[in-house]
Amino acid sequence: MPVPALGAGPDPGMEEEAASGDGTEPWLANSNNNAAPVGWPCRRGEEPSYLQRVLLEIVESERTYARDLRGIVEGYLGKIIDAQEPPLRPEQVSALFGNIEDIYELSSNLLQSLESCACDPVAVAVCFVTRSQEFDIYTQYCNNYPNSVATLSECMRSKQQARFFRECQEEMRHVLPLGAYLLKPVQRILKYHLLLQEIAKHFEHKSGDDYEVVVEAIDTMTCVAWYINDMKRKHEHAIRQQEIQSLLLQWKGPDLTTYGELVLEGSFRAQRARSERAVFLFDKLLLITKRRGDHYVYKSHIPCASLMLIESTRDSLGHGVYGVGGLGAPAHLMLPLPPPQAKSAEEKRVWTHHIKRLILENHHAIVPQKVRAHTPVSPHFCPGVGDILRCHPLPLTDPRLLPPARPRRPSWRWTCSPNAPDHPSRPPLSPRPPHCPHTPSSLRYPCRPPTPAPLQP
C-alpha cells in the first residue's frame, strides 16, 4: 500500500483544550510532562497579532502531536512489551511501530525548545535549524509505514489481537483507532515547512539577519520533506523493480537492480508486432517485454548508451526508439499509442524527456557542455512546495514536475548569498544536513531562485 500523499490534511484525534485559569489563553493539557509555555504574551483582553497566532499554533499543535505519540508509545507499545504473554510477535511489533519511540523523543525535545521561545519567531525558527539532522529519523518511519499498515490489517483479522487493540483504545478514550495515530508522523513532518512559511509571510521586517534565519528554517524543513519524498519514491520503485524481476520470463541477463533505478514503465506498439509491448525504462537499460497473464515475457532490450530517438514526421505523436548494437536485437518502438490524444501527448513528452536525459548520461564519449545545455532538462523542484527551493539543475525524476510541452531553454545562473552572522542571543546555526541532495557543499544557505539568462539568438 503506498504511503499517503505527504502533507495530508488535518491530524485525526485532536484532543480538547484545557483552560489554564490564570487569565491567559487556553492551552492544551500538558500530559507529556513537558514544561508549560513561558512568556507568551497572549493574555485575555489583548488581541494577538496574526504572527502570534501562527506561533501559538506551532506550539499547540506540537504539544498535541507529542501527546498522541505518547499514547502510542505507552498506551499500545508499552503494554505489548510489559505483557506476560505478548499479543503480538516480535516481528509484528517491529513492523507495526517502527521507530516511533525515536519520533516521540524528538517531538518532546522540540516541544520543550518551542515552549521556551516565548513569542519570538526567530527563536522558533532556530529550533528547527539546529535540529535539521535529527529529522532524518522520519525517513525510516515513512519508508516503513506501508509495512505498518499491512501488519495492522493482519492483526485486525485475529480476534485476540483485535480485542487487545480495542481495549487499549477504550482505556485511553481515543475516538479514533491506532491506525489514525500511526499516520500522524507521516502528516506532521510535511506540515513544518508550511507553518514556517506562515511566519515568513507575516514577518514585519523582511530583510536583515532575523528574516534570513526564518528563511533558513523554511529551506531546512523543505529539504527534509523533499528528501523523505525522494526516499519514499526510491523505496516504492525498488519494490516494483523486485516485482518485475519475479514476473519476468525468459530473461537470461543479470539482476535488474544492476541497471539502476526504474524510471518509467508503459505499454506501446512495436513495429512488426501484433500486440503491445510492456516497456520498462531503467537508468541503464530499456527493457521490452510482452504480457502473458500476470507475467512479462522478455523480447528485447537496448542499453541506454545505444539508444537512438527519432521523431516521426507522419505522426505528431509518434517517436521511434531504436537500438544500435548491444546484446539485444535491434528494436523499433512507436511512442505512444494514439487514444486518448491528450494523454498520449503528455506520455510522449515524459518518455522522450527521460530517454534524452539517459542517452546523455550513458553516452560513452564525453558530451560537450554546449550539447547538454540544449537538452530540455529543468531545475529539480521540490515536490509540493512550489518555487520555494531551487538549488541546482538536476534531471527531473517525477513526470508531474516536467516542463511544458514546448519549453523555452534558458541557461540558468545561480546566485547564493553566504550565511548571515549568528545573532549573539541565539545558538549557532547548524550546517545544512549532509543528506540534503539539493545544494553542493560549496554553497551555503540561503539559496536564491535562479535568474534566467537571456536567450542566445
UniProtKB/TrEMBL annotation:
One of its GO terms (cellular component) is cytosol. It comes from Gallus gallus (Chicken). InterPro entries: DBL_dom_sf (IPR035899), DH_dom (IPR000219), PH-like_dom_sf (IPR011993), PH_PLEKHG1_G2_G3 (IPR043324), SOS1_NGEF_PH (IPR055251). One of its GO terms (molecular function) is guanyl-nucleotide exchange factor activity. The keyword Phosphoprotein applies. SUPFAM superfamilies: DBL homology domain (DH-domain) (SSF48065), PH domain-like (SSF50729). Keywords: Phosphoprotein. Residues 426-437, 447-457 have a biased composition (Pro residues). Residues 1-30, 399-457 are annotated as: Disordered. Residues 50-231 form the DH domain. The keyword Phosphoprotein applies. This is Pleckstrin homology and RhoGEF domain containing G3. The gene is PLEKHG3. Pfam families: RhoGEF, SOS1_NGEF_PH.
